[in-house]
Amino acid sequence: MSFKTFKGGVHPGHFKSATEKKPVVPARPPTMVVIPMAQHIGAPCEPLVAVGDEVRMGQKIGDSKGFVSAPVHASVSGKVVKIDKCNHALGRPVQAIYIESDGLDTWHEDVQPNHNYNDLTADELKKIIREKGIVGMGGATFPTHVKLSPPPDAKIDYVLINAAECEPYLTADHRAMLERPDEIIIGVQLVMKAVNAPKAYIGIEDNKLDAVEIMKKAAEGIAGIEVHALHTKYPQGAEKQLISVLTGREVPSGGLPSAVGCVVQNVGTCIAISDAVRFGKPLIVRNVTITGSAINEPKNMLVRVGTLIEEVIEQCGGFKPNIKKMVLGGPMMGLAQPGPENLPVIKGTSGILCLSEDEVQLQEIDNCIRCGKCVEACPVSIMPLFIGSSVEQGLYEKAEAYNAMDCIECGCCTYICPAKRPLVQWIRMAKGDIAAKRRK
Amino acid sequence: MSNIITIFFGAVFINNFVLSRFLGICPFLGVSKKVETSIGMGMAVTFVMGMASMVTWLLEYYVLVPNSLEYLRTIVFILVIASLVQFVELVIRKVSPTLYQALGIFLPLITTNCAVLGVAILNIQIGYNLFESIVFGVAAAVGFTLALVIMAGIRENLELVSIPEHFRGVSLALIIAGILSIAFMGFQRMM
Amino acid sequence: MSLMNDFSKGLVKENPVFRLVLGMCPTLAVTGLAINGLGMGLSTTAVLLSSNLVISVLRKAIPEKIRIPCFIIIIATFVTIVDMLLKAYQPALHSQLGIFVPLIVVNCIILGRAEAFASKYPVVNSMVDGLGMGLGFTLSLTLLGAVRELLGNGTIFSANIMGAGYQPFRIFSFPPGAFIALGLMMAGMNILAKKFKLE
Amino acid sequence: MVGVAIITLGALGLIFGGVLAYAAQKFAVEIDPKVQMVQEYLPGANCGACGYAGCAQFAEEAVAGTAPITGCTPGGSAVAGKIAELLGIAAPAAEARKVAQLVCLGDCAVAKEKFTYHGVKDCKAALMFGGGPGACSYGCVGQGTCVQSCPVDAITMSDKGLPIIDKDACISCEKCVAACPRQVIDMVNVNANYYVRCKSQDKGKQVREVCALGCIGCGICVKKCPVDAIKMDGNVAVIDGNICNNCGICAEACPRKTIT
Amino acid sequence: METKLVVSSSPHIRASQSIRSVMIDVLVALFPAALAGVIFFRWGGFLTIILGMLSAMVTEAIILRKKNIFGDGSAAVTGLLLALVLPPIVPWWLVVIGGAVAITIGKHVFGGIGNNIFNPALTARAILTLSWVGYMVHWVRPIDLATSATPLAGASTSFYNLFVGAIPGSLGETSAFALILGGGWLLYKGHIDWRIPGGYIGTVFVMGTLLKSSGNLAGMLSAGIFHVLAGGVMLGALFMATDMVTSPVTPRGKLIFGIGCGVMTMLIRLYGVFPEGVTFAILLMNAVTPLIDKLTMPRKYGEVTS
User: Fold this and answer.
1) Topology adopted by domain A117-279
2) Cβ distance D99 to D165 under 8 Å?
3) ipTM exceeding 0.90?
4) More confident residue, D39 or A374
5) For residue D172, what pLDDT band results from cuts at 50, 70 and 90?
6) Contacts of B161 in chain A (CB under 8 A)
7) Which residues contact B64 (CB under 8 A, 6 or more apart)?
8) Domains identified in chain D and CATH numbers
9) Looking at beta carbons, which residues of chain C come within 8 Å of D75?
10) What integer pLDDT is reported at residue B15 of this predicted model?
């Protein structure tokens, strides 16, 4: 079956071969975990434990009263040794709870399986999803219960499962589909129930045909769930683009998917939901792809939240000497880090890329030659070249007039630019400036 | 009728007032920084030049010529234009503040726009009749507006790039006007 | 000292063409030949000088409210006189300059100097100011005319400079060349101004 | 013949004058007296050289503060001075001229870096990544935001990544001071020869770790100063330019060579 | 850790394409046309091409104070394009001046690559034409190099000659075949958008057909084809109008731009004083490019069109 594709987009190389055939291996249990209080978009959590407290695995150790927020849980059992700042993927140090593991991994008593989970109501489901700290695991870390609570007047027609994994290099979701298809399907069913949607589409890019087959088999005979192979193109996995590919609907500028009757979830999130609802396990582990040409042994790993990246890297044989850049997330939207020190894996860490000098291509910025390739590539139909140049010249009002606020920061424009202009960074500066002005 | 068309297109494209007759250069360089402003300016100029063409023509042939006072032409015309513009400005400022914001603020600038006096004198020198004079006046203004808007578009785009220090401002504007002027030469003798 | 300053500022520091960017229309229109530039410049100087003189003399008599119309009439009168004189004694030049002789009336330099200087300062200063500004204008026009004539025709003041083999860069004789030549010269002036810290 | 001319001109003048006078009354609109005053000062040539639609609009914008008071080129500095006087914008004070001065010595040879930054050449942009590439969280970021902010091109970037400010060219506009996200540009007395070229409030040990020339807050200069012009502001010494007599003892005494 | 990591904004991978690689692709695409020029117009053509490119590259190297005269390749493209629109036999100094003018007035007064409003090669050609019109309309027949009029000025010729390029005309614009070859390559590489050449050639064909004053359908059609193949339309549509820097960036804008070029070209050819209007037409459309971009801003994603 052929679906219509979305406008714009680019075709970067896949770079997935290093890890796509490697099963997910569990990481060595960490001796110490660092659990940041902010692992999601929204209000950061307040610690619920103090230095010296004994905690169990799965115990809630941080929470916030804000609606757009999700609690955090201990991923080992042991003792809280300090509450201090740690480095964070976003660049600003944040408060974190440091727990020394006792090596026993005893579960907290809150973690109880739910044998008749099929009888839960939508509201009960959402409550569990919130309590177990589930957030979008594609990288944006938007709290899932918020996504599952559309405005009351919105009727949700479709649950869309983002299994595109359109970011190059990453294979964590791909492996999850190959290895845990049934859990994904259960997660999808739970999401459908939570938002009362009759249909669910699972979108998988056609560079992962093995996953398409397995998921199709898993979804066989289950009413309402369809698996679709999608023409491979970046940024397929962006919410708005996935919606227009799968349903042909277009989310209004500045609007949410619920405005067109859709809810989008990541495959990883589905597994987490299934774990939370069936077994009462909070989100304390996740699949991480560690790859790139500057790592000795590329791997897919099941890593506990709070494990220091240093340790993960060490388990992959360490960096090669030609390392130039370390990125958390995919190469198109991930965040470059100053180093692996004191930096924990969090709920949104989908990959750790270790890139060599050849891969990162640090070129000088040239003048814009107005080739228009960025306009062609832009999936939200804005004109990155004009926004970029406006910001370069300090004309932020002009940048706003060119719809800078609609940018989804997918990076297509910067990827394609022959003059190697840092368009996304300029647009981000414009967005920051405009947002600051609007708040005034 | 074809005569009128010739006059119109001649004044807009072939002998564009700004680019080949060098009239109205000051506002062309001064008020061409934003497209919206330049459109407003152009509309105001069009209105004034049409009016001025008519009034000066009437004065020439009903006041100056019968009294053999052609040598007073410059004085009389500039007086008439200055008064006319000021009068129009006063009226629309009172009558329609929105129109004043759109057009009126440009009116004082037009008084000393040599294009207005130029068109009045050219009308007499070429010997157009009343209707032809008005068409010529309006067409000249449309040509002026065209050049102004094109220039404004270009300058808006140039805001986005770094111009070499010494060429910034008038210097580069003049060179652009020169190339524009070359491009407009393509219309030569097109009638 | 002050008089000297009033005089010299128009030549270089506040040169009407290159620094203040005033009077662009005649500057571009009549500078195909150096002689035309000189003629235009001198005519403008004459008007500027006389109008500055008269306005300065009358500066206390002219009512504040209607000063602009009064200035315009004074200027227009002198323009008409210059127009007639040129027609009588320099008919060739007059026809070359064409419509731009009566248009001296709307040259921003003249009204600008009247308002900014002549209406506020004594007669002698005003005349010196007018002379300085006028000569600055004349100098610029003649210079531009000479450059355009040299490149576009190989001559200056009709004297052959470049030799018989010169293939004239004709475009500088045409309207586009006026824009380009002035633009380039202005950039050159910017460089010189920066060098000699005229800012 | 002359009579006719005079009569015609006179009649025309009367008619136009009369109509205008009538219209001016009939269609009178209130204008801010300040705007009117500014308009009086302007040459009234409506030449458009300022980029605004005539003298009236320039006057309005100048009073509103959106147009530079020096915008009128035909009027020159005389008009600008009058407008400034009217609007109460004081001309630069008579006291000693202040110039911008960089108060950080942390160039790439001196200060440690956490990582290499690559991207838009702008200090604020660089600071968005982990608080900037520099290990010192008080020092100059070195991406040249101040260079761009300078209206007279008085600031250039040295090849070691620190801005160099040309004191003679500086016009004391303080734009660079406002532009610097780290506040490492101060306005100092043009005659002052010595300043503490560091703003780090970090403890001495931390400073030593990240920078070879940073102030460690030892206080030796405070003790040595013969005229008591130096005080400690937290962990960093500050010289009061009004008291300092340029003796240079502090510079010699400073163990870290932070005072120059 | 021994090596310091690099931190920058996402994305962290880049397409391999650079300005230099784009310019090299354009040079490759122009090669057939240049070759055709050399074959038809012999040594004169070869010298003109070499001089034009050298002049442009040396001028740019002097302005940028760089030792590498190829640089990003854009000056070479400008020089070659200029050479291809010059008559086959011109004095050497004219080519040198042309190259220098193209790079200075056409490009560097605006601040260098990407900033110019007008196509540098065409700017230089127009300036040269206005200055030394005698040399610039001196056309010769291919091979024997005898003075002759161009087909546009009334010389009769066959469609075969028009297509292959065995006609009097500018050095590189006679051979439609060679130009289509190069244009196709650029289209394939994605450096040009079909809308500009499509709009341009389509409009010229339609106007050439419809404005033919007399004759039957076949005669009208052949007039349309004639206007497409004769003169500089092919070179203009495929290489000059598609110059990225000076054409609109929006898809709709590109189509409007192409059609505009076509209309202007035909108006000048049919009603103007010049037999050929490609240069002026493209310069005129260059001038309105910012306005076209402004008016054809794409509908942003999710915006409801009213």
Assistant:
1) Rossmann fold (3.40.50)
2) yes
3) no
4) A374
5) confident
6) 367-368, 389, 393
7) B70, B72, B73, B76, D8
8) 33-87 (1.10.15.40), 96-190 (3.30.70.20), 192-260 (3.30.70.20)
9) 112, 116
10) 86
